[in-house]
Design goal:
Length: 442
């Protein structure tokens, strides 16, 4: 999952986060728990163990082997020798400050994953690892805002390293959150955190600086609509993000459901909302995925299954190129084809959101309205390391739409492209277009 895709400051998107752990077998989302050395079970997915952590326990001195290197296969000993030569040189001969072995090990892991050049794979400190999983689960400590990236003109983009044309911006404050109470608005640009400018940081690194311990303060330098920078101090709190919002439109003719996350709770609440609309006799449904950063792939499957009675939801392709078909779960409340569905999307519709949009689009079950989606077609897996070494998230698969389209870096083009600006505050022209496509006259 899964800018990385735009994510909540507690994520993730939530990596665009959005996002994004898939099990090999259908399983409920569960709280991460340890499963032996170096493994974590997340969203029912058996997380792979990082083999080779014992590499750092023994090694080579310069020019000669001083001990066996358990964890280093004999066939790879020559390839690893430069690593061990460097490690032993640092630990045995470095004359600067005392060498902290743990710092070296963490740095080596971070460098190894950074060398992949994948903005969605990264090493996480213990605090970052915890915050990342909490964000995807829908509960976190932070200021309570969905935060993404925009270009110099304020348009959503897909950049990863912050700079002049890649700026951190508020997508939406969570109602009632510290960010909401502090007056943050969608589109507000964050230029500095605690007095430090953000240029050169990744989105995740910047989000990590916004997160923190409950009841501590973070100072954000903000720019609103090209105005003068100002500083706002916000006290962090535990945020339980509401992920499903519902209302009836057009005099009760249309059921509207806005989904802002893909946690286990979101999937359950979404299913209940769809059932309530159908039980109320509503045959016209609008699902709003704009600004949705993604989350658990299991939740995406469950949500898509509310509209698909059977058949493929998406394909998963592993590192060896093997493709596995992931089918809809039975029992969806709105699988009757007489129920018309419209999905609203934008450039911040990412990862698990795109799984749902892609599934219903390819299967002819829904019409997409809005702007092109973010374009994140990979799945990440979280692995917790031994001791106090944090963990990492690693891209372990691609996902493809039912028609086997890989949308990564491309996004999904909606059926009806709508970029109409609001005529006045509170207007929602994209939603109005959705109603028109359902036959509701303005």
């Amino acid at each position: 999952m899964d800018q990385q895709p735009v994510e909540p400051e507690a994520t993730a998107p939530t990596e665009p986060v959005a996002d994004t752990i898939t099990p090999r077998q259908p399983a409920p989302v569960t709280t991460p728990r340890r499963r032996g050395p170096g493994a974590t079970l997340v969203a029912g997915a058996l997380v792979a163990v990082l083999a080779g952590t014992v590499l750092f326990l023994s090694g080579w001195t310069l020019g000669r082997q001083s001990a066996l290197t358990p964890g280093t296969p004999a066939s790879e000993a020559q390839d690893f020798q430069p690593f061990w030569d460097t490690y032993r040189a640092v630990t045995d001969r470095y004359a600067g400050t005392p060498v902290d072995r743990k710092v070296l090990i963490d740095g080596a892991i971070k460098g190894m994953i950074s060398a992949l050049g994948d903005p969605f794979s990264m090493y996480l400190t213990p605090e970052e690892y915890k915050a990342s999983l909490q964000g995807i689960a829908g509960e976190f400590t932070g200021i309570g805002a969905t935060i993404g990236t925009v270009d110099a003109k304020g348009a959503s983009n897909t950049c990863t390293t912050l700079g002049v044309d890649c700026r951190l911006a508020v997508v939406k404050p969570i109602p009632g959150s510290p960010a909401d109470k502090a007056g943050l608005l969608p589109g507000d640009v964050i230029t500095a955190i605690d007095g430090t400018m953000l240029g050169g940081l990744t989105q995740d690194e910047a989000l990590g600086k916004i997160r923190g311990t409950k009841d501590t303060a973070v100072r954000l330098t903000m720019v609103r609509a090209g105005g003068t920078p100002y500083v706002v101090e916000i006290i962090r709190a535990v945020i339980i993000a509401p992920e499903v919002e519902t209302k009836s439109l057009a005099g009760g003719q249309v059921g509207y459901i806005k989904l802002v996350g893909f946690s286990e709770h979101a999937a359950t609440d979404f299913a209940a909302a769809v059932k309530a609309d159908v039980d109320a006799g509503q045959k016209l449904l609008i699902v709003d995925l704009r600004g949705n950063l993604g989350g658990f792939v299991t939740a995406a499957r469950s949500i898509a299954s509310q509209f698909l009675a059977d058949g493929v939801v998406f394909w998963e392709q592993d590192a060896q190129g093997n493709q596995t078909q992931v089918d809809a779960q039975p029992g969806g409340a709105a699988t009757d084809p007489s129920i018309k569905v419209v999905i609203l999307v934008d450039g911040n519709t990412a990862s698990a959101s795109e799984i749902v949009a892609g599934a219903l689009h390819d299967r002819g079950r829904a019409m997409l309205i809005g702007t092109k989606t973010y374009g994140k077609g990979t799945v990440q897996q979280w692995t917790q390391l031994e001791g106090d070494s944090g963990g990492f998230r690693l891209t372990i698969a691609r996902w493809l739409t039912p028609n086997k389209v890989w949308i990564h870096g491309k996004g999904i083009v909606p059926d009806v492209f709508d970029t109409s600006p609001p005529a006045k505050p509170g207007d929602d022209p994209v939603l109005a277009t959705g109603l028109q496509q359902l036959g509701i006259k303005p």
